Amino acid sequence: MDTVTASGGPRPDLIRFEEVSKVYPLPAGDVVALDRVSLTVRNGEFIAVMGPSGSGKTTFLNLIGCLDVPTAGRLLINGRDVADLSDDELTFLRRDTIGFIFQQFNLIPLLSVIENVEYPLVLKVRDREARGERPFEALKAAGLDDERLYTHKPNELSGGQQQRVAIARALVNDPDLLLCDEPTGNLDQRTGAGIMALLAEMNRGGKTIIMVTHDPGIAAYATRQVRLVDGRIQEDTG
Amino acid sequence: MSWTFFDIARRNLQRNLFRSMLAIVGIVIGVLAISSLGILGNSLTLSVTDQLSTVGDSLTVIPHSGGASGFGGGTATPEKISDRQVQDLRRVAAPNPVIPVYSTAERIEVGSEKAVLSVYALNPDDVSLLVEVDQGILLRGNSGVLAGSRAATQYKLKVGSQIRFSDGSTQRVVGILKERGLGFDIQPDMALIVPARRYEDRTHPTGFDQVIIKVKDTARIEALQTAIDQRFNRRETVLDTFSSKEILSSIQTVFGQISTFTTAIGGISLVVAGISILNVMMMSVTERTKEIGILRSIGTLRREIRQMFIYEALMLGLIGSALGGLLSFGAGYLISLLVLQTTKYLFDPSSLSSIALGMGFGIATALLSGLYPAWTASNLNPIEALRHE
Ligand SMILES: Nc1ncnc2c1ncn2[C@@H]1O[C@H](COP(=O)(O)OP(=O)(O)OP(=O)(O)O)[C@@H](O)[C@H]1O
Ligand SMILES: [Mg+2]
Q1: Are residues B37 and B113 located together in one domain of the fold?
Q2: Which of B380, B383, B386 to mutate to test the pocket of ligand 1 (most atoms within 8 A of CB)?
Q3: What pTM did the predictor assign?
Q4: In what helix (H) or strand (E) does residue B146 lie, and over which residues does it extend?
Q5: What does the pLDDT look like over A100-156, one tens digit per residue?
Q6: What is the pLDDT of residues B318-352, one digit of tens each?
Q7: Is the Cα torsion angle B151, B155, B156, B158 positive or negative in sign?
Q8: Are residues B96 and B45 in the same domain?
Q9: What is the C-alpha to C-alpha distance for residues A117 and A86, in angstroms, rounded to an integer?
Q10: Do B89 and B168 have their domain in common?
Q11: pLDDT by residue (tens digit) across B185-237?
């Protein structure tokens, strides 16, 4: 993998948290979801984020996913401070560099399996010809081989199959980073293990993965474990 | 433009088919009201204009009080216009031709059929100034009858048919007139025209019921009216004058009021349609909050979300307007047929333009109603939207 940027300088860290806080102002008082978190994620890492409910795991993931910006501190993605980016630029980052995988799959019910997977690619490449076979390749890579399923609506598929569609959708624009919020939370153990094997394979293929989980067994697939408690990093094996 | 946003918009409308149809029906009604009434108004104006150009401008003079013809019959001795007054009118109106007219209604028999028809008695020399013949000839000498086109159709009159008048005398039809439509001077279509001399010999009238002055230079009409007023009505009003222009403008005033009223109704139905679209789309935004959050999280721009909702509004507007425009043809056809008894003005460019106007309003209403929901949807916070269940 390329480790220098086009300008020739050293490639910046994929993600850098510098004293990042996130505060939700509520009528009953401010909620500090993240409290001065500092952390660096390098390319190719597979990180499991653990911690009790309400400890700030989803908030942490949302910040990396550019769905939200810090209240205080600096968050750099590929060396750029997200506070300097416009809403459109944050959206382009989500579209091109980040793939989301959610606990509830979050597929679009109006679109068929293949359309769901193709959607982020359509946002990026308007020319049908240029999109080529990419959605099919992504579905194959996500382990959904049965092409008869591709024209079905998501709710006609099993949970495991839906999560594979979601993974294919996350992969279709070939992002550097996969963000997974409890990807196996809605799946039985065997199906979950299949999904984890797939994620581990993606990681070996070069994708950086940050995954929230409650399950120590699932966290064991990762190469680095980060433990959040009350919005602070309590333990980091990296 | 992208298939995705368009497709998502279309599928969402199909998912809530009943709701979408209600919104469309509102637009259809609004467009229908505006377009079909526009067609009617336009056809009316066109037909009046048409008639003006065939009949030309004329001034109708009738005696003050007492009425013009035998229609009323309530007054014991209806006022008439005397020979002397006609002579004076000729002097005032020269060089425009002055046509004295007896107008009455008479019981007649055609074969075994009995009927009551309007009868105009005219000097044969004047007939060609008022009507044109379709079959046969215009009156010549002091005998013969001309039959109006609708009277001829209804009583199966042909050139040569015999008509028996109430006094027992009979006359042959010498000519059938061309249809003339609504007129400002006389209404010959459902009437008979007989020579004045014969009428005088039979009934000994005390004077004429009306006098028609054909005015070649329409700009002179008002001056002529003033001149007549000065000559006849200085001490007391003896004669009333009506110009076709005046009648036309009063028709147009009345129609203007009707059309303001009906356009207001059309406008109101469009406003209601707009509110219903707004409502339908706000419901859709609320129900789809989570979906919008997902779309945003995987890279959809704000303006793309906006587009998606505007497409929805646009589709409702286009479908509603297309249906409304189509139905307007039918409605315009029916209304024209009922009110004007003709549909020949339906495909006139200016009638078609009122359909375009109605459709334009329909589409614009839908678009306007879609703006706020689209704006709301695009400004949802992605995280809040994702947490929404
Ligand atoms: N949009 C929000 N508005 C207000 N408070 C919020 C919001 N999002 C999160 N919080 C609060 O921030 C804190 C951290 O929430 P977060 O969702 O990050 O926890 P979590 O670790 O993901 O929990 P769980 O394991 O239950 O998913 C919680 O106290 C939560 O109530
Ligand atoms: Mg969470």
Answers
A1: no
A2: B383
A3: 0.74
A4: strand B145-147
A5: 999 999 999 999 999 999 999 999 988 888 888 999 999 999 999 999 999 999 999
A6: 999 999 999 988 888 888 788 777 777 777 887 78
A7: negative
A8: no
A9: 26
A10: yes
A11: 788 888 999 998 888 888 888 889 889 888 877 777 788 888 888 888 887 77
- Return the number of other C-beta atoms located less than 10 Å from residue B117's C-beta: 19
Q: What is the CATH number of the domain that holds A118?
A: 3.40.50.300
Residue spans of beta strands (DSSP E) within B8-72:
58-63
Choosing from B214, B235, B267, the residue where a domain stops is: B214
- Tell me the average pLDDT across A74-85: 94
Provide DSSP, B79-97. Answer: --B-HHHHHHHHHHHTTS-
Domain count, chain B: 2
Rounded to whole angstroms, how far apart are CA atoms A180 and B358?
Answer: 52
End-to-end Cα distance, chain A: 21
Residue B78: domain span: 58-214
Which residues in chain B come in under a pLDDT of 50?
Answer: 1, 66-76
Residue pLDDT, tens place only, B161-178? 888 888 888 888 989 988
Give residue A210 CA to ligand 2 midpoint distance, Å: 13
Q: Which atom of ligand 1 is nearest to the CA of A62?
A: 18
Q: Judge contact between B281 and B309, C-beta under 8 A.
A: yes
Phi then psi for residue B49, to 5 deg, are -60, -45
Give the number of beta-carbon pairs within 8 Å between A and B.
Answer: 65
Which candidate, A179, A181, A173, A178, places its Cα nearest to that of A212? A181
Interface test with A, best of B10, B297, B380, B384 (most A CBs within 10 A): B297
Question: Is residue B223 assigned to a domain?
Answer: no
Neighbours of A40 (CB within 10 A): 13
Give the C-alpha separation, B162 to B359, whole Å: 55
Counting the structural domains of chain A, the total is 1
* CA B164/CA B162 separation, integer angstroms: 7
Average pLDDT, chain B: 84
Distance from the alpha carbon of residue A53 to the mean position of ligand 1, in angstroms: 8
